[in-house]
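Lab channel / #folding
Pinned by the channel admin:
"Please post every new chain as: sequence first, then the structure tokens as a reply. Keep commentary short and put observations after the output so the thread stays searchable."

First post following the new format, from NK:
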Amino acid sequence: VFYHQTSKTQDLSTIAHIHKIPKDEIMTLNKLNDPIEIKPNIKLKLREHKSSKWLKYGSLIINWSDWTYFDGNYITQAKTKKNKSFYLAISCKKRALNNTLKNSYWTSWYFPETDFERKLINDFCEKE
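Reply from TO:
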């Protein structure tokens, strides 16, 4: 199970589309009787259907199968080549990245500087 934090503009259909899962499954897992019950800023449980898939991009290894949607951005776990774990965020709308590499805090959004960062954004945002 993983979670989706709802926003003001999302309805059940949008959330189901983002995560590519049936609306009925979301309703059952969260004991919702009515899709209208979706309110902003609540965490909905979603069931993971895929096995873990880690992909290498430059000096990073990214957990490609465990992206979480939050506030218009996507977040997943990643590792450096020295096996240091951190979180990576992508904003397809801004075409920008963010991470928790420095002291486990989010940095400022930044635009890709390397070829692998550009490829990462292109590969990920193409599937959205």
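NK: Strands lie at 2-5, 43-46, 54-57, 60-63, 68-70, 73-80, 85-91, 96-99.
TO: also worth noting, The chain is about 20% helix and 30% strand.
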